[in-house]
Amino acid sequence: MKTLSDINSLTNKLKKINYLQVEKNKSLAEFASFKVGGPADLFLTPEKVSALKELMPLIVNSNIPYFILGKGSNLIISDKGYRGIIIYTGSLNHYQVEARQITAECGLELKEIADLAYKNSLGGFEFAAGIPGSLGGALYMNAGAYGGEMKDVIVKAQFINQRGKLIELNKSELKLEYRTSILQKEDPDWAAVNVTIELKRSEKKLIKAKMDELHNKRWSKQPMELPSAGSIFKRPPGHYTGPLIEKAKMKGFQIGGAQVSTKHAGFIVNKGNATAEDIVNLIEKVKAEVYKISGVQLEVEPRFLGEF
Ligand SMILES: Cc1cc2nc3c(=O)[nH]c(=O)nc-3n(C[C@H](O)[C@H](O)[C@H](O)COP(=O)(O)OP(=O)(O)OC[C@H]3O[C@@H](n4cnc5c(N)ncnc54)[C@H](O)[C@@H]3O)c2cc1C
User: Fold this and answer.
1) What is the distance in A from the centroid of ligand 1 to the CA of 159?
2) Among 66, 192, 203, 280, which residue's CB has the most CB atoms within a 10 Å radius?
3) Function of this protein (predicted)?
4) Domain annotation for the chain: domains and CATH numbers
């Protein structure tokens, strides 16, 4: 159990690091696409990779738990918040384009990378343009949509390990599979800092047409107008979650401010005043009903952060 004085002493050390913002008791709800979540004890925003290199060994030695936060679009954050340190990657967003490769820092959003690809007449990233989230989060999750996934385009990635050292892994070492990667499977607690993707030459009008088509598909089928964390369950082999949930008569079912979307049953949405507890209770109810009706065990896709 860490005390307030442990956190204060670490805070003083962290404040000496250049290009690092240090904040205490920061509400996390605004950093989560679900718009729920209590405060974090410490909230760190490195503005350069050098700051991340310096802070990692300090916080690892302090033994205070830490969590790397991208755009919070695949998270359910506890109403009680997080007793530990959040490292927010939102200010790590430099990039460079060389021939057919884009190398970007992990805080850059997928839609920004898709724009960059379009401006450089590079095709093959259209699938990711509408996936909310950062490049680091997309690597962690091997995010994908409409037949494409990060695995198709990633060449290599760089990480900062717990000792503050830079590590580079190539595509096969990243162990990218359906909605998972080495970061999830082996949980090395590294921070991804740079990812290189390789695309193919294409024509701007074709890229734009594909992005528009997928955008319209997404907005017509998914509840993009309400806070959520995207698909709430992983697709079980041989099934689609939406129809399974509809069969269990859970579409539109609501607990507190959390509702199984009436537009797409595979999403849980925040109707405005949901708590994380409402969301978790609704997830459990849906899982139980689907299991009862179809015998399928649903697995939650977003990560949980904090105490539940
Ligand atoms: C409306 C909506 C639609 C969505 N549609 C899709 C979809 O079509 N396909 C899909 O795959 N997903 C979808 N998602 C889910 C989400 O957008 C993706 O999983 C995304 O890749 C998460 O990225 P993030 O930056 O928000 O990660 P976060 O939610 O911030 O974090 C997710 C995990 O990644 C880890 N992480 C983040 N950055 C780093 C880093 N730099 N280094 C190490 N670990 C890191 C975090 O620690 C955490 O464990 C959707 C979400 C929403 C809200």
Assistant:
1) 17
2) 192
3) Cell wall formation.
4) 4-88 (3.30.43.10), 95-208 (3.30.465.10), 223-305 (3.90.78.10)
